[in-house]
Fold this protein.
Amino acid sequence: MKYFFCLIFLFSSFSVFASNSTDDLIDELKVEISKKSAYEGVKESRINKLKLYRSRLQANDFEGQFYYLNSLYSEYKAYQFDSAYVYVDKMIALSKLKGDKPKEYYSYVKMSFILLSSGMFHEAFDFLHKVDVKVLDNPAKIDYYFFLGRCNYDLANYSNDKYFTPYYIAAGNRVIDSAISYCGTDFITRNYLLGLQKLQEKKYEEGKEWFSKLLEKDKVISTHLRAMVSCSLGIIYLETNQKNEGINLMIQSAIADVKSSTRETVALYTLADLLYMEGNIKDAYSFIQLAKEDADFYGARQRKIQIGAILPLIATAELNNSEHQKNRFLIFLIIITALALLVVFFLVLIFKQLNKVKIKERVIESKNLQLSEFNGKLIEDAKIKEEYIGQFFKAISGYILKLENLKISVDAKLSMKKYDAIHTLIDKIDIKKERESLYYSFDHIFIKIFPNFVHVFNTLFDEKDQIWPHEEEVLNTDLRIFALIRMGIADNDTIAKILEYSVNTIYVYKMRIKAKSLHPEHFEQRIMNIKAFDFN
C-alpha cells in the first residue's frame, strides 16, 4: 500500500541480498551515497512540479487543493519535517473550512505520522485520539491503526524496561490486529503487518517467513517498503545470532533509503553502530556523520538523541584510529627514511669503490699503454740490433777476409823482398770508397727499418726548408745525422767520428736544421717518435 513508505521503524532500515558479501554491499552503498544529491534532485523536481500545478488551481477548487497538498505532504513526510508539517496543517485547515470531517480525520492521521517520526509521541497520540475511525475509508483505517501501533512500539523501545515495555507491545499488537482486519486483498500490507507483529512478539521464525515473502523476486513493492522490510528482517537475523546476514540486510535497507531520498531514517546510524562493534571504524564514522546530517535536515528529535548517544563513541574510536594510523605512517616513514639513508650510504660507498676501480683501471690502462710502447721499443730495438748486428758481422767478415788476403800478399812480397810491390798493394786500398760503402749499407738498412723516415722528417718543416736526398742517394748528410740520432746515437763526438766531421760541424748542422723546423722546442723528441715498420 502506498502509505507504507512513510514507515520508519525504531530499528534500522538496512538490507542486503545474502548472496553478496558485506564488503561488496558496503561499496555499493558508498556508490549510492555518492548519487544522493542526484536522487534528491529528482525529488525536488517532483516537488516543484506539484507546487506549480497547485499554484494554477482556482482558490475555490477544494478537491484539487486538497489533492496537491496531500501529494506535497507525501513527498516531504520522510524527507523534511517542517515542510511536511506545513502542508498537512494546511490540509487540516482546508478540511475544517469546508467542514469535511473524513478529510479532517484523514489529515490528523497524516499529522500523527510526522509527529511520531519527529519523536513527539504525546502530540502524535493527541492527534490520533481526535480521529473518529468509523468515518475513514479502509486504507486510512489501516494507516490509523498502524501508526497507533507504531506509537506503542516506539514507546516500548523508549521505555526499555520490564514494567512498561510489555504493556506497550501488547497494546501495539492489539491495534495491529485491527489494521490487519482491514487489509482485505492487500496481501503486501497484510504480510508486512503480520511480520512486524511476530517480530514484536519475538516469534522470529514466523516473522522471518512473512517478511521473506515480500522480498521474493516476483513481489513488486516500493523502494521505501523494501527498506522497511529489509530492516525488520535484518533485526530478526541479528536477534537470532546470524550477524552477517543481519548486517547485509541492514546495508540493503540503507541503500533503498538513499534511493528513495528518505531522510527520516535510522538505517545509516544503526549500520554505523553495527560496523563500530565489528571494528570497521572508518566506515562507521562516515555513516554516522551522514546519519547526523539526515537527522538535522529532517528535524527528527528522537533520531538526534539516538545518534548523539553513539556518535561520541565512534568519533573517539575514529580519532584513536586516525592517531594509530598516523603513528603507523610515521613509523613507516621513519623506516623508509632509514632505508633510504642506508641505500644512499651504500650507494656512496659503491660510488667511491667504483671511482677507485675506475682510477685503478685508468692506471692499469696507462701501464698497459706504457708496456705496449715499451714492448714496441723493445721489438724495434731488437730488430734494429738484428739488422745492424747482421750487417756488422757481414762487414767485419769482409774486412777480416780482406785483411787476411792482404797479410798473405804482404808476407809473400816480403819473402821475395819485393818492397815496391807492397806499396803498390797498399795504394790499391780506397778508404773513401770503403766509407761510402759503409754509408751505403747504413742508409739501406736504416730505410729498411724506417721506410717513412724521410717523409715524416720533412713534415716537420715548411716546404721550402724540407731536405730530400738526390735521386742517386738514399740519405744525405743532414738526414744521416738525424738517422743516427733516431738510432739512439745522440753524442755529437760519436756522430762526428762516424761521419768524419768535426764535433763543431755536427753541432752546427743540428742547430741549423732544428732552427728551421716547425717545432724547434720538441724537434728531437719528434724525431724519436718516428715509427719503424710494423713488426707484428
Observations:
- The chain is about 75% helix and 0% strand.
- The mean pLDDT is 84.
- The CA atoms of residues 193 and 253 lie 18 Å apart.
